[in-house]
What does this fold into?
Amino acid sequence: MDYLDPYFLLTVFLSILVIVSAYWMGKIDFSALIASGFVGLVVIFSLLEDWPLLYLVIGFFVFGNLVTKYKYSVKEGYRVAEGVRSFRNVFGNGGAATIFSILFFFTGLPALLFAVVGSMATAMADTFATEVGQAHEKRPWLITSWKRVEVGRSGAVSIYGLIAALVGAALISSIPLLFGRHLGVLFIGAFAGFLGCNVDSFIGATVERKRLDKHLTNFIATTAGGLAAAFVGNYLDIFI
It folds into this structure.
């Protein structure tokens, strides 16, 4: 791996710029700034020659902040608007990808690259589903019973949110294609992200309110999405 590759150095610079800009604009606090830097460093150096997959993390950071602004005043009215993010948000959404990257560094298993894609696709799907769904659906359904519940309830889903989840998962999963990856990565990532998002909703509707917080729920869901992508990618024998 050539650490003096201009594209590699540009990616490092862009990552720092994105994180610092988010902190400067008040989107993340100092703990999230440090945590984001840690995640970025671990991912980019653990993936070795596959370091361009770091753009999955950058993409999540950029698109996640953009979709948060979508109909922000409406979500403020429901008191569900996302505030300043801390290190808990960072590890809830990016912790699984970090672990999968480290495992790839030590094992070299290609399926773990799919796991990185699936975990970040899940994080993006969940963010899109939450931000878009809460802005449009006044009385969403609880995923376990399909009873109407209030906006912001853990485990609540809506048609708008489900469509947004698929769009978000596909958006992130399309990034590897920009670096010449197999087209199958897009479909596997979109599937895994959508699945992981619904795992998040199911956990939220069943055990989150009693035993977990939303960040641990996010971590479990992104891990599930990552494992789903790894299994499907390995089963189809697609080289990422």
